[in-house]
Design brief:
Layout: H1 2-15, H2 22-26, H3 38-66, H4 70-85, H5 90-109, H6 116-136, H7 143-166, H8 172-175, H9 185-195, H10 205-213, E1 217-222, E2 225-229, H11 235-258
Antiparallel strand pairs: 1-2
Helix pairs in contact: 1-4, 3-4, 3-5, 4-5, 4-6
Length: 259
Amino acid sequence: ILYLFVTAMTKYAQAGIAEVTRSAVFGIDGESILFPNALVKQSYIMIARPFMVYGAICGIAIYIHNKNKKILLISTLFVLMDSMMMLGRKGIYSMILVSFVAAVSYRIKSRFKVSTSNVVAVLMLVLTVTGLTTWRLGGNLDLAYVAEHYVVTYHTGGIALFNEKYNDPGSRLRTETTYGRSTLGGIEQYLAVGLRRIDSGYRAASSETGAAMDERTTIGYANRSPITLNAFNTVLYTLYLDGRHLYVVLAGILYGICV
């Protein structure tokens, strides 16, 4: 992870921060700027990243029970590095959400005290999110634009994209059912590696879903200019694709119980 992180920062600096896109990182339009080949990319996504999430969850649980911060700090550092080199903020948002739940649980269990290390950890997460946002905006951080584009437009746009696919009788969302394969796509990715030796054209449902959601779609207009978004169909897309309305309801109930 450290090697890939250093490599990523070096290549991004050479290519120009504002010019690097997530498509270039994942190699959607050609070769990846980060990963030397598909094997390294798949190994990182399927092995390293799940261990980061697992380590973060275990680190928080261990910290709550016996005050040991080592695993939590190491996992948090890895998540921050991953978010920076993959040009994404999902991992950081997940850490903030899990940390919030952990803080509430810790407060219920015992009297919660704000320590210097807790404040530093929160500041690191906030600064990383701010830095990534500034990076993707080409070094110009306009808070009004960030609030409008990343908070309002992203979320309302996600619902608009899902609604457009839902109202299109010929869309993949309405014509196919993946029966849990989209939601549990990470598991199928492991099976797909072996199945491709039998059928080279085999693709996991999550890969097909990702490719479908990557298509840019015009969702509206602002100042006579079209607003186009992709990959933001919300989690409703995969849930509905897996089992229609019943799966959306059951998955929501299950998620609520687990949380």
